[in-house]
Amino acid sequence: MCGIIGYTGTKEASGIMLDALELLEYRGYDSAGIALSDENGGPARIIKRAGRVKDLRLLCEEKNVSGHCGIGHTRWATHGGVSDENAHPHGYGKITIIHNGIIENYRQLIEKYELDGKLKSQTDSEVVAAVLSHFYQGDPYSAIRKTVLKLKGTFALAIMFEDIPGKIYAVRNVSPIVAANTEDGAILSSDVAAIVPFTTQYFVVPELNVVCLSREGIEMYDLSGDKARIDWLTVDWDISRSDKGGYPFYMEKEIMEQPDVINDTVLPRIKDGKPDFTAEGIKDEMLASCERICVIACGTAMHAGLVGKSLIQSMIGIHVDVVMASEFMYNDPVVNDKTLVIAISQSGETIDTLEALKFARKCGSPSISIVNVKGASIARASEHVIYTCAGPEIAVASTKAYTTQLAVLYLLTARMAIARGLWSEDQTKKYMDELLRVPDVMKEVLSQKEEIHHIADTILNAKDVFMIGRGLDYSILLEGSLKLKEVSYIHSEAYASGELKHGTIALITSETPVIAVVTQDKLKSKELSNIKEVQSRGAKVILLIKGDEVLEQEKIWSRIFRLPVMEDEFMVMPASVVLQLIAYYVSLDKGLDVDKPRNLAKVVTVE
Ligand code: AGP
Question: Which among 494, 515, 548, 590 could bridge 481 via Cys, Cβ 3.0 to 4.6 Å?
């Protein structure tokens, strides 16, 4: 979960890399650095420090650095704390390197190559530079191949050799690298968003292939030294989606984009009024024959999976497990050829999810991934992939990726019902018409964002916030609670409202803010009773309820927001937008960095 960039060409590299690192900062922002070299070769000039990219930019201006070839890095600390020494790039001998990933055997390598006392940092990355230096006798490919064979773990490495001016080498294992030609040279990055300002043609560097970038373009060789074919991809979203679009933070922009990106995700997958996954190669046989489903994901993606579980179990009648990817392999999962595994991941690079998916496939499970980043590792590791069309999601807190994941799950549920002959034409049409209403319903909620802002202000100074609901309402509150925690740092707990009275209600005191969601007719009376239980103990209840609900109860809320009305199973969509906006406004009004919350990174590529 670091961001890496490399550029070589005729332009000044420092500005290009600093701009790119700002785009990549959502991947990690403890420290940053660049290394520059030019046509004359010689040792690269390394400028790095703890802090944000903007601090690095000031340092570069002070030092008045220049060069036409360089590598840059923005870090989320793993091995070695946050410090100037531990910032990347790292130099060792003739080698300058940046690294995203975790080298698990770095201590063994320190012993094997007698590096004790020779390293300047506490990082595993500097160890890689030292091992490369050990093998480097003038042939970069040979040195890289020999080094890679010694490494255990994940890595995206970009490397410069001081006696090979103007060239950047790169190799990866699990951690992402994309590369492209520019009009004057070549560029590589962790994320295509940093490449888009230069070109729309790029490729994902295949694992364990070595690329060489130069002004003449890009060459790629496999580990046996044979030239390898590059499979080019085209960026299919417009660049305007990778800037803030006039909003103070990406998170607000991405919340506002949801109606459009849901249309982008849904409309191309409807043919003759029915969901259609022909383009993804998903056949009805696969959806009809599985006996159960296992969703593996993390964080927000897992919360999307919980909604998918409710939809599929209630409409298809097969069992769905939703398993935290980091737990999956360690809890003796029962998956086999009759278990359809669905891996959900915005980045497509979450290693917990990737490793769980690989494990499930080894058990013979058919697999579909729902991913937002084209060509990502999880997309390539699954049998089929359904891409969400949310565009680049820069804010660390996921919003539009979550609701587009839900949109795909609605489509998949419908296709599964049709494949199993469960729905009549009328049922299908009613369901699909409701799905097509979602963008307009979301726009209705977004038009009331000022009212939601006032509601958010009522919890601005809260220390703890509880969120209670049942069934689907509970699933969306798990996501709403995560959003509030990760962007506002307020402790929040989503609780199944029926379970609260079995202990946790002891924490409810007067003035405790409780957000309650009531959207499921079959659960409404019980949910309202549970709300009364907390309200009678002094809780300040913020009630999100369907717009047309007639409440016989005496006023059991302190604030109420009436949601636009949809069929119960679709109420997740408007309710989620309200919860996203509440979290956003609390963070905004607390003056926090909404897009880059402390301790977090957008992509978690460590287990
Ligand atoms: C989202 O708000 C969180 N930042 C985080 O939980 C995220 O959903 C999780 O890390 C999974 O990421 P992925 O979807 O890229 O796999």
Answer: 494
CA of 601 to the centre of ligand 1 (A): 9
| Closest residue by CA, ligand 1 atom 10 | 299
Distance 360 CA to ligand 1 centre (A): 20
Mean pLDDT of 59-72: 94
pLDDT digits (tens, 9 = 90+) for 470-508: 999 999 999 999 999 999 999 999 999 999 989 889 999
Question: What confidence tens digit (pLDDT) does each residue in 356-414 have?
Answer: 999 999 999 999 999 999 888 899 999 999 999 999 898 999 999 999 999 999 999 99
Is 54 annotated as catalytic?
A: no
Name the residue type at position 567: E
List, in order of start, the domains of the chain with CATH numbers. 3-235 (3.60.20.10), 241-446 (3.40.50.10490), 449-589 (3.40.50.10490)
What is the pLDDT at residue 36? 97
Atom of ligand 1 nearest to the CA of 299: 6
Closest to 88 in 3D by CA, of 118, 127, 53, 46: 46
User: Which tokens sit at 561?
Assistant: 């927001």
Out of 29, 347, 354, give the residue to mutate to test ligand 1, the one with the largest number of ligand atoms within 8 Å of its CB. Answer: 347
Residues with CB under 6 A from ligand 1: 298-301, 345-347, 350, 353, 396-398, 486, 603-604
- CA of 222 from ligand 1 middle (Å) equals 32
- Give residue 198's identity as a one-letter amino acid code: F
Q: What DSSP state is assigned to residue 153?
A: B
Catalytic member of 253, 483, 524, 602: 602
Residue 606 has pLDDT above 80, yes or no: no
Q: Where are the beta strands (DSSP E) in 185-244?
A: 186-189, 201-204, 210-214, 217-221, 233-234
Locate the ligand 1 atom nearest the alpha carbon of residue 347 and give its number.
15
CA distance 407 to 413: 10
Give the pLDDT confidence of 536-564 residue by residue, as tens digits: 999 999 999 998 887 876 788 999 999 99
Atom of ligand 1 nearest to the CA of 397: 2
Say whether 363 is catalytic.
no
